[in-house]
Design brief:
Elements (H helix, E strand, L loop, with lengths): L1 E9 L2 E6 L5 E6 L3 H4 L18 E10 L2 E7 L5 E5 L4 E6 L3 E7 L7 H12 L5 E6 L9 H16 L3 E3 L11 H7 L9 H7 L3 E6 L6 H9 L24 E4 L4 E5 L13 H5 L27 H7 L5 H20 L17
Parallel strand pairs: 3-5, 8-9, 8-11, 9-10, 11-13
Antiparallel strand pairs: 1-2, 1-4, 2-3, 4-5, 6-7, 12-13
Helix pairs in contact: 2-9
Bound molecules: guanosine-5'-diphosphate, magnesium ion and zinc ion.
């Protein structure tokens, strides 16, 4: 048996790629593996037992349907997922970094989306990276835009890897710079140049809503146009989808990129409230100190260290509101889970995120 890595998934067919990343084959899964897939503690089924980025053992001689057969999935270092109450969608596994590409404008910054991404990363020990794009589209005279910049800067306090740039004209961050001087912010912000130096090795997943510059950034990393970029839709201001499934591609000997489909909502239905609380770097050092055993850290609980920290405004107001929304969305999932809903066919139903 030989080791391969899953490169792309198309229904029951799997593109697999050899260890030296030179050979690409189509393979199928050993029938019994579909049943053997471990259940997630939330009981929500996985969309697929395998994930792009998985290392697998493949039997090339014993051919079922004339394809090589994937016999085993090797243990994963981590796996980034999103989940509706019906389905867990694996986005990529065995990651060194997960990069969220998020525009400050068009589409406008959504901190709630960022916070969900961070929770998804921290819940499986994935190093998150945020790249803020479209610094050129900010309007320094708009309060809303100033707020977007302030929020983006906040993430610098809690993450090691945060970058800001204009991807069309890298290095030219006007009018972001005007906003920074307006709010008297004088620290430096890292740019594309720093990103290319710091995130250049390992398996790097790229995620984001569509239209935020994911393909543009991919092309800049690779140094040539491999991913189609698309103009943001004139009527809705939102991006259009060009990618529908995750796809792994080697850039060079050291760097493997995983491109993911444009994501509208990042569902976290597979996590418990307690797990959500464990994904906040602001109280990382305190979480084990809660005096209550098996504490859920919810607001009803008096004397809980996390509630104390929230009360003392350890989170900025907007990040606290995002947390409340995320917790509320879990209540919503709870209510719909026992109901006699019909599972939507295959695809996600956006309203449940
Ligand atoms: N003004 C501006 N436009 C950008 C920037 N980054 C990407 N774009 C444009 O935004 C549109 C969507 O980019 P694309 O890379 O296709 O986004 P994707 O959907 O996330 O892959 C394209 O027209 C890009 O040229 C940026 O930093 N500033
Ligand atoms: Mg794209
Ligand atoms: Zn507690």
């Amino acid at each position: 048996m030989k080791q391969y890595r899953i490169q792309e998934i198309h229904g029951n067919l799997y593109y697999i790629i050899s260890e030296d990343y030179n050979e690409r084959l189509l393979a199928v899964l050993r029938g019994k593996m579909k049943i053997e897939q471990k259940e997630h503690p939330s009981k929500i089924p996985y969309r697929n037992p395998c994930c792009v980025g998985d290392y697998v053992l493949v039997n090339e001689t014993d051919q079922e349907d004339s394809y090589p057969v994937i016999e085993e999935i090797l243990p994963r270092k981590n796996m980034l997922v999103r989940a509706s109450p019906y389905e867990i969608q694996p986005l990529g596994s065995n990651l060194d970094f997960a990069v969220l590409i998020t525009s400050l404008k068009q589409p406008d910054l959504r901190s709630g989306f960022i916070d969900r991404f961070l929770i998804a990363c921290y819940s499986d020990n994935i190093e998150p990276v945020i790249f803020f794009t479209k610094c050129d589209l900010l309007n320094p005279d708009q309060e809303e835009d100033i707020e977007f910049v302030k929020q983006s800067i906040y993430y610098k306090n809690i993450l090691s890897y945060v970058y800001w740039d204009n991807l069309l004209q890298s290095g030219n961050r006007e009018p972001l710079n005007r906003i920074l001087s307006k709010i008297h912010y004088h620290d430096s912000l890292k740019s594309l140049k720093d990103f290319l130096i710091e995130i250049k090795e390992g398996t790097v997943l790229l995620a984001g809503q569509s239209g935020t510059g994911k393909s543009t950034l991919t092309n800049l990393i690779i140094g040539k146009e491999v991913q189609k970029t698309r103009e943001t839709s004139k009527t809705t201001g939102k991006g259009r989808h060009t990618t529908t499934t995750s796809s792994l591609f080697p850039v060079n000997e050291n760097l493997i990129l995983i491109d993911t489909p444009g994501i509208k909502e990042w569902g976290l239905a597979h996590l418990t409230k307690r797990e959500i609380f464990e994904c906040y770097p602001e109280w990382k050092d305190k979480i084990g100190m809660c005096k209550f055993r098996n504490c859920e850290h919810l607001s009803q609980i008096e004397g809980c260290v996390i509630q104390e920290a929230i009360y003392q405004n350890i989170l900025p107001e907007w990040r606290k509101e995002n947390l409340e929304h995320i917790l509320q969305s879990l209540d919503y999932y709870e209510r719909i889970r026992p109901g006699d809903y019909k599972k939507p066919t295959g695809r996600f139903h956006n309203k449940f995120f």
